[in-house]
Amino acid sequence: MKITLCGGGSWGTAIARLLSNKGHDVNFYIRNKSVIYDIKKNKENSKYLPGAKFENEINLTNNLLSVLKDIDIFVLAVPTTSSREILEEIKNYLGENVIIVNLSKGFEVDTLKRISEISKEILPRNSFVALSGPSHAEEVGKDIPTT
User: Fold this and answer.
1) For residue 17, is it left (φ>0), alpha (ψ between -120 and 50) or beta?
2) Do residues 60 and 39 touch, judged by C-beta distance below 8 A?
3) CB 71 within 8 A of CB 27
4) Which residues contact 144 (CB under 8 A, 6 or more apart)?
5) What does pTM read for this prediction?
6) Left if phi > 0, otherwise alpha if psi is -120 to 50, otherwise beta: which for 106?
7) pLDDT tens string 20-79
8) Of 104, 61, 59, 65, nearest to 82 (Cα)?
9) Distances (CA, A) of 27 to 19, 24, 105, 125
10) SS3 of 140, please?
11) Rounded to whole angstroms, what are the CA distances from 61 to 6, 31, 50, 58?
């Protein structure tokens, strides 16, 4: 499966690592070039998720629009306050069959909309799912199962 994950914090890193280590073709968009360099050099995101090593190759980029073509899933792992901006940025580049997976929680402050509602407004033809649970990035990054 070809996946683009947007957001290089601890939760985004944990999920990108998990997907990559499971053999998926992962594009990992991180806006901070120093974090990209760190992952390339050390095979981990030392700033946000130290000790969680990437075992497989992962495509790291700070150019989001360059990694939207021919993907199956777009994972949104940015703070809720950035969700609308990212979805607006990609709306003309994302295929209608791409599933949007949201990892963020919360409401948009100005509108009190959930991210699912924002996504439906901006990308009405794309399927939307939310991934949540009792887990923490630190646990997922170390392959510790949760229930």
Assistant:
1) alpha
2) yes
3) yes
4) none
5) 0.94
6) left
7) 999 999 999 999 999 999 999 999 999 999 999 999 989 999 999 999 999 999 999 999
8) 104
9) 10, 10, 22, 22
10) helix
11) 10, 8, 20, 10
